[in-house]
Structures are given as structure tokens and as C-alpha cells.
Amino acid sequence: MKTILAIHTGGTISMSQNENGEVVPNSENPIAKEQVILKGQINLITDNLFNLPSPHITPQIMLKLKQRILKAITHGIDGVVITHGTDTLEETAYFLDLTLPNTVPVVLTGAMRSSNEVGSDGLYNFQNAISIAATPESYGKGVLVAMNDEIHTARFVTKTHTTNVDTFRTPTFGPIGIVTQHKAKYFQELIQTEVCDIDHVIEGVYLLKAYAGVNGDLFSALDNEKTRGLVIEGLGAGNVPPQALPAIQKLLDRHIPIVLVSRCYNGVAQKIYDYVGGGIQLEKMGLILCQGLNGQKARIKLLVALSNGKKGAQLHEFVSNAIS
What we know:
By secondary structure, the chain is an alpha/beta fold. Helices cover 26% and strands 20% of the residues. The chain folds into two domains: 2-186, 3-Layer(aba) Sandwich (Rossmann fold), CATH 3.40.50.1170; 205-320, Rossmann fold. It is built from eight helices and 16 strands. The two termini are 35 Å apart.
């Protein structure tokens, strides 16, 4: 019999709709009381660790979650399922993917409809996540996200719709598997996984998005001793309007690492354009082009790297390539 730890952190999956149609938190998580399928095959241990809407989740809370999972691993747990609000689920999933040893399956899930709404998807997703965590083929896959019968990697999945139950997608690459007949079926896998252990998280790592005509004002606001790192979502393949460059250069002069990704939904940041503000010039200035991650994931990766003490070439190598 597999022993699976279910850690509940809050989110829509734990909430209910009131008489006015407003979705509100419950004092007790209704999903935690449910007895799911696979009776006689699963020993389910429940831990109501947090009861937080996912916009309230911080890297410090992600670290506490990582520490709870490590404790469970040392006690011989076979797999971990985490219920989580969907707004920041992908960031928590990737934080855990970067910082946990790739030993037992760790699966995050959530819901787009609260527990008492018509068509609520929470219990179904929870049941699927438990099935994935209990499937032997789930070992060695990194942290996974289970939503709407699909299995995604924490590294590449993202929320794409505000309310649709099919919101979680993996741009460019697609899901790595599906759930069918209470078992995980895989047809893709990551080329490699990477672990960067940390025991604390630093502050001062920011994310800014480029747009037509952006100047240096926002970048200048970060020109202070509190700023430890910055991720820029660039235009297209990784380009920035020229009027922002002087302020960006000042940050580089402070030896603040700056990571460049694309704001596009599909594709990767690349050094293609050789004009003022183009990706080629930005790399020459000292920006780190990160391929394959969106802005929020690149920020998590930079935060983890800096919390680990990485710098210079080691930082560049860790952050730059998420694909292989």
C-alpha cells in the first residue's frame, strides 16, 4: 500500500460560494475531509498546513512547504500531493521543482470552481493528483501539476485563463502525460532536472515587463541597495526599447544580475536582433538570456540561485537555459 501525504494550503479548491455568489475561504478545508478513490491501495495522510488564497503565498511560505516535504521524505513517504490556489500555483510548483531532491513524486493541483459550485473540479483534480503520486512511472519526473486530466511539468506549465477549468497549459511543449483509469500515462519527459538546495530566501528580486515606449523610470526606481536581482520580460525574441537602456546599464554597474525572457506566450528569448535594444546588444551589456521560462518562473529561478549564493559564471549557467 502506498502512503501519500496530502498537504493542503488553501485556494479556491478549499473555498465555497456564499449566498451572494462570492467565493470566500472556509474555516475548515472541505476537500481535506473527502475520502478519495483507491481505498485499500492508498494510505492518505492529511496535513492542513496553510489556509491561504494563493496571492498570499510568498517565497518564505514556499520554503516552509519544501521543508515539510523533506521531513515527509525522511519518514519514508511514497508521494506528496499539494492542493494550492491556482493564481500562483505554477510559481510554488517551480520553486519546489528547483529545491527538492528528485526522489518521490510531488504533485500540485487546485480548482477553478469552489467546493460547492456546480461543476466543481476540485475533488476530481485532487483524486487525479493522488493517482499520479501513486503511479510508479511518476518517479523521477520532477514536480508535476495535475489539472483537468492532464499532467504538466512544474517548469513549463502556466495559467492561461482567468476562470476556465482548462486554464493550465504548457506552451510550445504541451503536457507530458494524462490521467486515465486512475493511473498516470506519460508520453514525454524532461531531458534533465536540476536541484538547487536553499535554507532561506532573499528579498529584492523583481520582475518588470517591457512595453512600447517604456523608459528608464521603473528601472531607476530599482537603482538602490535593496535590489538583488531583476527579470525583464522583453519584447518579441528578447528586445527592449532604447530609452530604457541607460537605466538598465546603471543597474548592471551595481552588479545586479538581470535576466531577460520574452513576454510572448510561445517561444524562447534569443539573441537575434543587432540594433539598439536588441537581444544581441543586451547580451553584450551583460543581461542573461533565459530560454524557455516565462517571467514569473525566471524570477523564481533567479531568487533560488541568489539564495543559494550563486554568482558570476555559475549564476549565468544555472539561470540561462531551462530547456536542457
